[in-house]
Specification:
The complex is a heterodimer of chains A (611) and B (81). Chain A is an alpha+beta fold and 611 residues long. In chain A, 38% of the residues lie in helices and 13% in strands. In chain A, β4 and β5 (90-95) form a beta hairpin. In chain A, α1 (26-32) packs across α2, α2 (35-46) crosses α20 (474-492) and α20 crosses α22 (521-541). With 81 residues, chain B is mainly beta. Chain B contains one helix and five strands, in the order ββαβββ. Chain B has one domain (2-75): Roll (Ubiquitin-like (UB roll)). The chains are: A alpha+beta (611), B mainly beta (81). At the A-B interface, α8, α9, α10 and α19 of A face β4 and β5 of B.
Chain lengths: 611, 81
C-alpha cells in the first residue's frame, strides 16, 4: 500500500504503441520527493543528456508530487520534464488547474512518454485502461477546441493536456496547455510533444490519494489553509488584482524592463497593470484544484479589433507583450495573450522574441521586406500580427517561432538576445535586483523567475528584507532560501504561490502524514540541494560550462533612465562565491565530496579531475 | 511647506476612490514631515495598511522625512509571479 504516492509509473512507447506499468521506487521518491525532483531523476535514468532534444530518445515525463491531488491547499501542480528543445538544458515546466490531480486519481505518479508516433495520436487514460487513439481529427485545433472535442470523445469530466498549433508546428517556444488556458509554458516542452505527434492526453481518474495518517494530515491542512487565508499577500493582492498587481510597483522602482531591456521604466505601465486589468477586462477570478487563493483572471475584451476571451494576462505576459514591446494598449496585450493560448506558445518567450525583432528592425538589421510590415516598438497592431504569424509559423513567423536567441544570431546581433542559456529573462530587471542577476545567470533552465524569485526578499521582505542593490550575502540567499527551496516546493505538488504565507515546515507537516515517510525541515533542505545539483549535472553533461552562467552584456551597462538610472547587474565575484557555497569547483562543477554528501556520486563523471 | 506627490495602488485606492489609476495626489506638507505623519495626519490612512513605501523608486522606512519634490508611492502587502 502506497500513501501520498500512487506507487505506479505509466510508460507509453509511441513508436511501438506499447503501454507498460512500473512500480515507483520508494527510496528514489524519498530522495527526490516527487514532481520536479523525481521526474528529473527519472529522466537522468532514461537518457544521456548529450542526445538531441528533438529526437525520439528524449522522453516527455509528466510528474506529480506526493501532495498533488490530496486536497490540501493549492495541491494542483504537475510538471513536464525532458531535455529542453529551446535551450538544451534540463526542462521542467509546471502548471496548475485540474490535470495534475487527475493523473493521481487515475493511479499514477508519473507518465513517461517515449518514442515517436508516425501519425497524430492522443492518449486516453481511464484509470488502469490506457489507449493510444488517432488524433487526426484534432490536429490543427486550439486547446479550447481540443478539450471540448476530447470531452465528447472520452468522458465529459476528462481532464485534458494538449498542444496547440504552435506545438504541432514544432515552435521551440511551444508549451503544453491543460484545462483550456493553463500552460506548462517554458523551454519548448510543447515542441517535443509535437515531435512525438502526441496531440493530447485525456485522463479520467476515479480513485483518490491514500493518506498514511488522515487525521494528522487534515489537521495540518486546515492549519495551512488558515495561514494562507490569513495572509495579506496570498489572500489579498493576489485575489484582488492577480499577479499583474506587481506591474506598477516594479515600474515605480525602475525595475520593469522596457523595449527589449533598453530601459527599466515604462512610461505607460499603468495602462497594462493589474488595476487596469481589473477595471477594464476582468470578468471573474478562477481557482485551481483545492486552492483558496484563486489568482487566475478570467477576462474578456468585448468588442473591437482585439475582441477575445480567455485567462490573464498574468504579470509576466502583460509585461512581455506590453512594456517589453513598448505596447501600452491593454486590449492588444490581452488579445496577444489569448492568441498565445490558442497557439499554445509561451507568452514570455513570444513577447521577448517580438521585442528582439523590433530592435533588429529599428536598427536596420531586419528589413520591412523580410518581415512583411514595419515592426516598431509601440506598434500594437504589428505586435499582435507578429504573435499570430509566430503561432502559425507563417511567413516571418517561421523564424520568430524558434525564439529570440536564434533570431538574434541569425541577423548578426547576438547582443540583442536578452536571456541566459537561450531562455529569455523575465519581468524583473537584473540591473536593479542583484539577487535576480545571479539567479538568472545560474538557473538550471536558463534565465527564469520561478527558479528562485529573490524579489520576495529584495522587495517584499520575505523571508527577510535585503535591499535590491546590496551584494553581500546574496549568493547564499540565491542558493538556499530561493533556488534550493523552490526545487523542493516544485517537487511536492503544492503551488509556489503559497510560499508567501508558509514555509517548508508547513509543507513537511503535510508530507509526513500524507506519505508516512519522515519528511522534515532538515531533510527538505538537503532534498532541494540534491535536486538542484542533479539538474546542474545534467546540464554539464549536456555540454554547458561555467561560461554559460553569464548575463547579456546590456544589463551590465548602467540603466539609462528612471528612478534607478545608473544601476547595473554586477556578477563578477559573485559567481565564484556562489560556486564555493554550492560545493562546486571554480568551473562550476560539483566536487566529488559534494556529490557524495548528496548521494549523487553514481551519476556521470562530471566532477573535476583533481578533486 | 514642501511639495510632494503621492500615489496609492492596489487596494489602497479605496482611501481615495476618485483618484484615477494613473493619477498622483499633489500635496503641500510641512518641512520635516515623515512618511508616517503623512499617512496618519494628512492622508488618514492606517500605517498597518502599508507594507511597501517607496520614495523616488527606493523602498524606505516610515520614519523617513520628506524633502521637496519627493515622489511617494504606497503599496499594501503584495508579491507575485
Amino acid at each position: 500500500m502506497y500513501y501520498g504516492y500512487t506507487g505506479t509509473i505509466l510508460r507509453v512507447n509511441l513508436t511501438h504503441g506499447e503501454v507498460t506499468k512500473e512500480a515507483l521506487d520508494l527510496k528514489m521518491a524519498e530522495e527526490f520527493v516527487g514532481g520536479r525532483g523525481l521526474a528529473s531523476r527519472l529522466l537522468c535514468a532514461e537518457i544521456d543528456p548529450e542526445i538531441e532534444a528533438m529526437s525520439p530518445e528524449n522522453p516527455l515525463i509528466f510528474g506529480t508530487g506526493p501532495l498533488t491531488g490530496t486536497g490540501a491547499p493549492a495541491t494542483a501542480r504537475y510538471v513536464v520534464v525532458c531535455k529542453a528543445p529551446l535551450t538544451g538544458t534540463i526542462a521542467c515546466s509546471n502548471s496548475g488547474g485540474f490535470f495534475g490531480p487527475e493523473i493521481k486519481f487515475a493511479g499514477y505518479d508519473a507518465l513517461i512518454i517515449e518514442g515517436e508516433s508516425p501519425e497524430p495520436v492522443y492518449l486516453w487514460i481511464q484509470d488502469d485502461r490506457v489507449e493510444i487513439r488517432s488524433a487526426s481529427l484534432l490536429w490543427g485545433k486550439t486547446p479550447v477546441e481540443t478539450e471540448s472535442t476530447l470531452q465528447k470523445l472520452t468522458h465529459p469530466a476528462s481532464k485534458i493536456a494538449c498542444i496547440g498549433p504552435g506545438g504541432e508546428k514544432l515552435s521551440l517556444m511551444a508549451g503544453i496547455v491543460n484545462d483550456n488556458y493553463r500552460l506548462a509554458a517554458r523551454s519548448g516542452v510543447g515542441a517535443l510533444m509535437g515531435k512525438k505527434k502526441l496531440k493530447a492526453i485525456a485522463i479520467r481518474g476515479t480513485g483518490g490519494v491514500n493518506l498514511a495518517d488522515p487525521e494528522q494530515f487534515w489537521k495540518a491542512s486546515m492549519d495551512m489553509h488558515a495561514k494562507i487565508t490569513g495572509d495579506p499577500v496570498s489572500f489579498g493582492s493576489f485575489r484582488a488584482y492577480g499577479t499583474a498587481s506587481l506591474v506598477n510597483l516594479i515600474n515605480e522602482m525602475g525595475a520593469y524592463p522596457t523595449r527589449n531591456f533598453q530601459s527599466d521604466t515604462f512610461e505607460d505601465a499603468v495602462k497594462t497593470g493589474g488595476e487596469a486589468i481589473t477595471e477594464d477586462i476582468l470578468e471573474r477570478n478562477r481557482a485551481c484544484f483545492a486552492c483558496p487563493i484563486s489568482c487566475t483572471r478570467v477576462t474578456e475584451v468585448k468588442e473591437g479589433p482585439y475582441k477575445g476571451r480567455g485567462e490573464g494576462p498574468e504579470y509576466e505576459s502583460t509585461w512581455s507583450l506590453g512594456a517589453l514591446c513598448g505596447v501600452s494598449n491593454l486590449e492588444a496585450v490581452a488579445k496577444a495573450n489569448y492568441l498565445c493560448g490558442d497557439y499554445g506558445i509561451d507568452t514570455i518567450s513570444t513577447g521577448a522574441t517580438i521585442a528582439c525583432a523590433m530592435e533588429l528592425f529599428e536598427t536596420g538589421a531586419l528589413s520591412e521586406k523580410e518581415i512583411g510590415f514595419p515592426l516598431r516598438f509601440g506598434d500594437e497592431a504589428a505586435m499582435v500580427r507578429a504573435v499570430e504569424m509566430t503561432g502559425k509559423r507563417e511567413g516571418f513567423g517561421d523564424i520568430l517561432a524558434d525564439g529570440s536567441y536564434r533570431l538574434a544570431e541569425r541577423y548578426g546581433h547576438p547582443e540583442f538576445f536578452m536571456g541566459v542559456k537561450k531562455l529569455e529573462m523575465s519581468a524583473y530587471s537584473p540591473r536593479v535586483f542583484q539577487g535576480m542577476a545571479l539567479q538568472y545567470a545560474t538557473s538550471n533552465r536558463g534565465a527564469c523567475h520561478v527558479r528562485g524569485n529573490t524579489v520576495a526578499a529584495e522587495l517584499y521582505g520575505i523571508p527577510r528584507y535585503m535591499p535590491p542593490e546590496v551584494l553581500e550575502q546574496k549568493e547564499e540567499m540565491v542558493r538556499r532560501p530561493f533556488q534550493n527551496s523552490t526545487a523542493f516546493v516544485d517537487s511536492t505538488g503544492i503551488c509556489l504561490f503559497t510560499k508567501f504565507a508558509i514555509t517548508h515546515r508547513e509543507i513537511c507537516a503535510l508530507l509526513a502524514p500524507a506519505t508516512g515517510i519522515d519528511f522534515n525541515f532538515d531533510r527538505s533542505i538537503v532534498q532541494g540541494d540534491r535536486i538542484w545539483n542533479l539538474e546542474r549535472m545534467f546540464n554539464l553533461r549536456a555540454g554547458f560550462t561555467a561560461a554559460d552562467d553569464k548575463l547579456p552584456a546590456r544589463v551590465s551597462e548602467p540603466s539609462p533612465d528612471g528612478p534607478r538610472a545608473g544601476s547595473r547587474a554586477i556578477l563578477q565575484n559573485h559567481i565564484q562565491t556562489y560556486y564555493q557555497l554550492r560545493g562546486w569547483d571554480e568551473e562550476g562543477r560539483p566536487t566529488r565530496s559534494k556529490l557524495k554528501e548528496l548521494n549523487l556520486e553514481d551519476f556521470w563523471n562530471v566532477c573535476s579531475e583533481h578533486d | 511647506m514642501i511639495n510632494v506627490t503621492v500615489k496609492l495602488s492596489a487596494d489602497l485606492r479605496r482611501y481615495r476612490p476618485a483618484l484615477r489609476i494613473d493619477e498622483s495626489l499633489p500635496l503641500s506638507v510641512p518641512e520635516e514631515t515623515t512618511l508616517l505623519e503623512l499617512l496618519s495626519e494628512i492622508l488618514q490612512i492606517p500605517a498597518h495598511a502599508i507594507a511597501i513605501p517607496i520614495v523616488n523608486g527606493v523602498k524606505c522606512k516610515l520614519n523617513q522625512k520628506l524633502v521637496e519634490g519627493d515622489r511617494v508611492a504606497f503599496w499594501p502587502p503584495m508579491a507575485g509571479g
